[in-house]
Amino acid sequence: MIDCCFKRWDFEELDLILKLMEKESVTLNLDSYKVLINGFTSYGKPEEAERLVSSMYDKKLRVETYLYNFIMNGYCRFGLVEKMYELHSKMSSRGVTPNKDTYWVLMNGLCKVGKVCEAMSLLNELRVNEFEIDGAMYITLEAVAEMSREGFLRDATICENLANALFEVHERGTNDASSPHGFTIDLIHRRSNASSSRVSNTQAGSPYADTVFDTYEYLMKLQIGTPPFEIEAALDTGSELIWTQCLPCVHCYDQKAPIFDPSKSSTFKEKRCNTHDHSCSYEIVYADKSYTQGTLATETVTIHSTSGEPFVMPETIIGCGGNNSGFRPSYSGIVGLTRGSLSLISQMGGAYPGFISYCFAGKGTSKINFGANAIVAGDGVVSTSMFVMTAKPGFYYLNLDAVSVGNTRIETQGTPFHSLKGNIVIDSGTPLTYFPVSYCNRVRKAVKRVVTANRVADPSRNDMLCYYSNTIEIFPVITMHFSGGADLVLDKYNMYMELNRGGVFCLAIISSPPHGFTIDLIHRRSNASSSRLSNTQLGSSPYADTVFDNSVYLMKLQLGTPPFEIEAVIDTGSEITWTQCLPCVHCYDQNAPIFDPSKSSTFKEKRCHDHSCPYEVDYFDKTYTKGTLATETVTIHSTSGEPFVMAETIIGCGRNNSWIRPSFGGFVGLNWGPLSLITQMGGEYPGLMSYCFAGNGTSKINFGTNAIVGGGGVVSTTMFVTTAKPGFYYLNLDAVSVGDTRIETLGTPFHALEGNIVIDSGTTLTYFPESYCNLVRQAVEHVVPAVPAADPTGNDLLCYYSNTIEIFPVITMHFSGGADLVLDKYNMYMESYSGGLFCLAIMSSSPHGFTIDLIHRRSNAYSSQVSDTQLGSPYANTVFDSSMYLMKLQVGTPPYEIEAVLDTGSELIWTQCLPCLHCYDQTAPIFDPSKSSTFKEKRCDTHDHSCPYEIVYNDKSYTKGTLATETVTIHSTSGEPFVMAETIIGCGRNNSVFSPSFSGIVGLNWGSLSLITQMGGAYPGLISYCFAGKGTSKINFGANAIVAGDGVVSTTMFVTTAKPGFYYLNLDAVSVGDTRIETLGTPFHALEGNIVIDSGSTYTYLPGSFCNLVREAVEYVVPAVRAADPMDNDMLCYYSDTIDIFPVITMHFSGGADLVLDKYNTYMESYSGGLFCLAIICNNPPQEAIFGNRAQNNFLVGYDSSSLLVSFSPTECSALWN
C-alpha cells in the first residue's frame, strides 16, 4: 500500500496509512523502511528519507550501505551536492563502509556541478581501495571528458588528468563492458493529415481533427520478445507505459504492420496481480478519446542504436493491448517517456539516470539520445527548471513567464495562466502549442496587430489564426520566455504552418482543449441529516437530530481581492454559489468571519433594470437564503497547487439567511443551471465533474479532464433533463436487488423511462417513494435474522440490534443501460455512534411534486360547485366572462382521457360512466368501465353489495352512481406520468344540470376520498394553483406546491365539525380604497373561520348585512351612473368605459394576510363593454361566504394542510412558467 501511494504521488493517503499503522500499533520493519526511503528519494524528498535513516538507528535497525547510496543519489539528482557530502560524512562516522556504488554516486554529483578535482580524488581513492570501475563510472567520466573537449571545463590540467584517468580505466576494463555509456536512435518522421495529442487523460490535449497541414509524428523502432519482433511506436513524453497491440485481439485498430503475438516469444510473461484471474489489467484513455486496454507483462525489449550496438532490457514491463481504438494504422503502439516508474527511461535503470534528449527535424533525420549522449551543452544553450505536479506526477512541467510577439511582451503574470511551479507541459506527441483561452487570445491579438495580410478561415476548423500569404516573412518572430531567463527565440517555421497547397499560413498556437484540476474536500460529520435540494425539486428529510454519522462535504474557495477564504457545501441539488455578506440583516451564527464586500476591489453588484438583482433560494428543509446577485473574483486552489481564477463570477451575497449550520459559509451550486459553478467555469471545463466521497480519509472533487471516469469496473447510465426541473441530475432506476431478490420499479408509480431519481451530493440518505420503499424494506426484513429496533432518530428508518454488519444483505441499484451498482454494506447500513444498532440508509421520500396545465373554460354562466353541505349561487345566465378551470386526467387501462372541473369545495373524483341511466349531454365520449382491465366495483354491505354515492351541489346539480377503484394517471408538465393505482372514484350514471364541456369533477378538499388525500404520504396535502385570466393556468402538487418568497402572505385554515374537509379562512375586514370595514361587531365576525376559499365558484359571496356595507363604500367613491344588473342578481353595476374609476379592494385575513386585489379581480366587464359590475354578491343566511376564483386570479394560492395555512403570492400566472 505504501509503495502504491508513492507510485500515485498520493502523499496524503500515505500519511493516513502511516497514522493508521501507528493507531493499530503496527511497527515499521526493515522492509517498510526500505520502501519508504526508496519512495521518498525517488519522488523528490531525500530529506524525508534521511530522517527515516535516523529513525532506523533509534530503533536499532541495521542501515545498509545501499540505503545511504540511494539517498545520496537523490540529493545528487537535485544538485544538492553539499547535502550529499554531509550524508557521506554521517555514513562514515556511523561505521558504514562505502562500496563502489557510493563512489559512483559521489563522482556523478561532483561532475554535475563541475567539481572535477574532487571527482579525480575519488577516482584515486577507488584505485587505492582496489575497487573495480564499472560502466556507470565510465559514463560519468566520459561525459565530463566530452565537456572538456568542447571547452566547457576551463582547467586544461584537470581535463588532461581526467582524460588520462578515463583511458586508464578503459585499458583496465570493466565488469560491465556490455553496458553502453550512452546511445542514440534514429527516429522515423511520419507526416500525416491529422493533429493529435497523446497526453494521457489527466492532461489537456487536442482531440483528433482533420487538417490540411503537414503535421508530424515521431516514431522509434524497437524489438520485443525472443526471437525479436520489430515494432514502430510513437515517441510520447506525455504518457508513461510502453505498449503495443497483441494477439489475440478483442478489438484492435487497423494496424498496417503485423501485430505482436506473445505466444511466439519465449521471454513473454504475464504479470501477476491480486485479481480474480491474477492478471494485471491496465487502461489508458488519452485526451483525444483514443484508448488502450490490456494486461501488463514482462518482456525483453531490444533497441538498436546508431552505433549498431543493441541495448537489451530483459524483463521490461510492457502493456499488451487487446482492446485499442482511435490510433493511426501507421504505428503499433506508444513508447511512454515520462518520469513515471513504467516509462522506458525509468526502466533503463541507474546507468541512464533520467537523461534523454531529442532533436526533431522538419525535414531530414531526427534523433533521440539516452544517457551520456543526451547531455545538452555548449554555446547558445538555455536551461529552465522542470516542475513536478503532485496531481500529475511524471510529466514534464515548465514555467512560461511570458511570450513576445515581435517586440510586444505578453506576461502571464496577472492572468489565470500565471504560476511559479509549472504552467505548461512540454510534449513530444503534440504538434501544436496550446495556451489557455484568455492568454491565447492576447497572443493572437498581438499577432493580428502586426500582420498586414488578409484573414482567412482556418481550413482545418480548429479556430487557428490564418492569413493569405505567399511568404512567411510577413509574420512576427515569437519568443517563449521560460523561468530562469530561458528565452527561446523560435524560428518562424516553428510558429507558422503553411497550407499543403501553399498561399495560407496559420499560427501554430491554439486555445487549450478542456483541461482539469482536483480539489480536496472537507468532510464534516454532524448529528443532523438534511437535504439541500432547492424548492423546485424532490428533497429529503428536514433537519432532524440523529445518532448516526451524517456527512457534509465542503470545499474551500476564495472570494474577492484580496482573497477571502470560505468553506462552502458542495451541492449538486442547487444552482447558485452564495455566501453570507456584511452588512447582514438576518444572518445565521457562522463560526468563521463573514465576507465583507466593501473590502474587495473586484466586487460589483449586478444591476437589473437599474436596480439591484435580488435572489431567493428556499431549500426543501425550510432553510433559505435571500440577498442580491453580484460579480466577484472566485479563486480555487487545486491539489496541484495551481490556483484556478474565475473573474466576474456571478455569486449570491446573502444578507437574510436562516437555519443553516454555523460550520459552513455558504453553498457551491453544482447543477447544470446557468449560474452554477461548473457552468460559469466556461468552455475549458465543459460540464465535466466527478467526486469521490470517502467515509474516512480524503475526499476529492475533480473538474474538466481530471473528472473523466474510466477503466475496468466502470458502469455508466444516462442523465435525464426534466422540463419542470431543468439543471438537475436525474437518473433512471429500473430495479433494486436485496440479496438475490430483485424488485422492479416497473408496475409501480416509481417507474419511468426518462428519470425517476435525483443523484444529490447534499443529501446523506437515499429516498424512495413510500410504496416502493416499503417493498425494499420488506425484502430486507425477510432475510435479516436480528431483532428489530425502533429508529432512535424518529425518522422511521428500518433498524436492528446487531453487533455486526455482516448479517445484512448486499443491496444493488440497477440503473438504466445495465449500470448495476453493487453497494458496499457500509453504503446501505448506518451504525449508531454507541454501536450495537444498524439502520437501513433508505427511507421514504419526503414530499415531492409535479405540476399540471389547466384548461381555462369561459362560459356565460357562473356557478358554485360547492357540494350540498354548502349554499352557493344557482346557475344563472350571465353576460359576463365566468370561468371554470379543468384538468386532464386518464382513468382505466388502457388510459381513457377526461376533462374534469377542479373543485376545492367538494371531495369525490367522479366522471360519467356507461351504461348511463340519465346522463347530461356531455360533449366528449363517456367512459366505459367494461373496456378497462383495472376497473373494480367497490363492495359494501348493501342488498347488491355495491357502494352507492350521491352528491347534490347547492346549485341543484347532482351526481349519483357507485364507487369503484380504478387506475388514475395524471401527466405533469415535466412529461412524467403520476400513476395512482386502485384510486376510489365515482362512476356517475345519473347526473344532471352540468355543463357539457366537462366530464366530471375532481374533488380537492381534504376529505378521505379527495384526489390529494388519495395521493398518499408522498404528497401530504400540499397543493397550489395559479389561475390566469388569460394565458396559462397551472396546479401544483407536493414540493412543487410550496409558496414562498417576497410578497407572500399566509393565513390560517380552519376545520369546522359541521363541514369537515373544506378550507375555511377567517376574514377580519374588507377595505374599499382607504375605508376599512371590520367584520367585528357584525354577525359575520368569527375567530375560527367565516369564509370558504373555493376554486369552483367564480364570484365572491358575502353575507347580506356585511356585503351591503362593502357595496355602500364602493357606491360612495364611484362617480359613474348606476346601471341595472343585466343578470338580475342584484349585482352593483355602473356604466363606464374604463375600470380605472373603481376603488381598490383589499381582503384582510387573519394573521395579517392582507390581499390587495387587482381591479380585474373585483370588477367584471360585460362582453359588449361599457358596463362594469362588482364581482362580490350578497347572500343571506344560512348561505356560506365564499372567496371565489375570480378574486384569486393572478395569485399563486397554496394550501398546506399539515401546517393549516393558505398562502398567497401575487403572481403573473400566465408568465410564471414561461
Automatic annotation (TrEMBL):
Keywords: Aspartyl protease, Glycoprotein, Hydrolase, Protease, Secreted. PPR repeats lie at residues 29-63, 64-98, 99-133. Its main location: secreted. PROSITE patterns: ASP_PROTEASE (PS00141), PEPTIDASE_A1 (PS51767), PPR (PS51375). It is found in: Secreted. InterPro entries: Aspartic_peptidase_AS, Pepsin-like_plant, PEPTIDASE_A1, Plant_Aspart_Prot_A1, PPR_rpt, TAXi_C, TAXi_N. Residues 218-541, 553-894, 885-1209 form the Peptidase A1 domain. GO terms for biological process: proteolysis. GO terms for cellular component: extracellular region. PANTHER family: ASPARTIC PROTEINASE CDR1-LIKE PROTEIN-RELATED, OS07G0603500 PROTEIN-RELATED. This is Pentatricopeptide repeat. The lineage of its organism: Eukaryota, Viridiplantae, Streptophyta, Embryophyta, Tracheophyta.
